[in-house]
Write a structure and sequence with these properties.
This protein is α+β, with helices and mostly antiparallel strands and about 100 residues long. It has one domain. The chain is about 25% helix and about 30% strand. It has 2 helices and 7 strands; from the N terminus they run αβββββαββ. The strands form 2 sheets. It has a 5-stranded antiparallel β-sheet, with helices on one face. It has a two-stranded antiparallel sheet with strand order 6-7. The longest helix has 15 residues. It is globular. It starts with a helix and ends with a strand. About 15% of the residues are buried.
Amino acid sequence: MNANTECLQRIGYREVGRFLIGVILAGISFVNRQPDQQGIYWRLAFLPFDTLTLEVSPGCPVALLAEIEADAATNIAGYGEYFELLTSGQYVDLGS
């Protein structure tokens, strides 16, 4: 793990397989764990809390797509349930 990955984990991203997942106010962001040559972590996909429709970025490697879809499916299956955004007790209603 490099210093940039550690930094992302400190702000709430967690490692899942070959990518990182971050919960932000609007949804769940799936980010490539390996930065490009400039050190940029590219978003692979995004799952908005309001629509629960996975938005796959054009540059998402096909090899990672199945893993991302599997992780997203657990949240999509929670339609109508409350999802904790932060450890402070903030929640969002999935799918609305």
